[in-house]
Every structure is written in C-alpha cells, then in structure tokens.
Amino acid sequence: MQHHVYFWIKDEHKNTETLASFEKALDAVCVVPNIASGGWGKSAATPERPVTDKSFDYAIYLTFDSIAKHDAYQVHPEHDVFVDGYKHLWESVRIMDVE
C-alpha cells in the first residue's frame, strides 16, 4: 500500500532555516522501520491543468508491503517525533492512502 501526505506550510514558517529543518525531518521519517520505500518532494512545476492541484508545499510518499506495516509505522516513536516536532508548521495536512 502507499501512504501519501501533503503539507501546506504556514507563511510565517516559510524561511530557509525552518524549511531546511523540515526537509531533514522528512528524510528521517522516510527511513522509519516497516517502510519498503519512500521519499518526499515539493509541488512540481508542471504545466497548469484544471485537474492539477499544486497548492501544497511538500509531499511525502511511502510504500509499505502491507497495511499491518503501515499501521506499525503510524505508532512508531520516530513517526511521533516527526509529527510532534513539526505540526506547528502546518496550515493543513491531507493524507491519501492507496491500497
């Protein structure tokens, strides 16, 4: 299964130092046990289309071999460190899981 998380960062946190710290935290969360593969990125500079949403600032995409491994990731202490350490930056977060 795949776990996709989209982040909208509050304007007051869109500075070089804060975003660099957030990106380092994204790197760290991508290697939490139970993840088969993963990565993160920013909204791509693709051509504008009516069906494309480029309003988000960052996205993380993680692949798990099973829903059970996804569920174990959700309660892993490193996941909590990421959420607790950075949730104050987020204007909004959207999660889309695909089986």
What does this structure look like?
By secondary structure, the chain is α+β, with helices and mostly antiparallel strands. The protein contains 3 helices and 4 strands. Strands 2-3-1-4 form a 4-stranded antiparallel sheet, covered by helices on one side. Helix 1 (16-29) packs antiparallel against helix 3. The model has no long low-confidence stretch (mean pLDDT 97).
Low-confidence stretches: none
Estimate the mean pLDDT confidence: 97
Compute the number of structural domains. Answer: 1
CATH topology: Alpha-Beta Plaits
Shape verdict: globular
Strand content: 25-35%
Structural class: alpha+beta
CATH class: Alpha Beta
Give the biggest sheet. Answer: 4 strands, antiparallel
Radius of gyration: 14 Å
The helix-strand sequence is EHEEHHE
Number of strands: 4
Q: Helicity level, as a percent range? A: 25-40%
How many alpha or pi helices? 3
Distance linking N and C termini: 4 Å
